[in-house]
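Technical note accompanying the year-one report. For the benefit of new consortium partners, we illustrate the data format agreed upon in the data management plan: each record pairs a sequence with a structure-token string. No post-processing was applied to the example shown here.
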Amino acid sequence: MVYLISFGAGILAGVLYGVINVRSPAPPAIALIGLLGMLAGEQIVPVAKRVIDGIPLTRAWFASECQTKITGVAANASTEADDTRQG
């Protein structure tokens, strides 16, 4: 549902741009790459805090804390279980 709302908002913005005869502020591919960079950049802070505190970076932690915020998809339960067993 969230994806449909987001897509609808994008369509609405595109229609508005078309009505007022204004071009998009950035080519779509460049805009998407920039957004991906912003999402990835936001995750540098929690990773750096863990490293500074001497807490190991595990695959399960990254999947639950960073990957979900970047992709919007919840972490896989089997990945968390596998990583928990590894330490």
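Partners are asked to follow this layout when depositing records. The chain has a mean pLDDT of 80.
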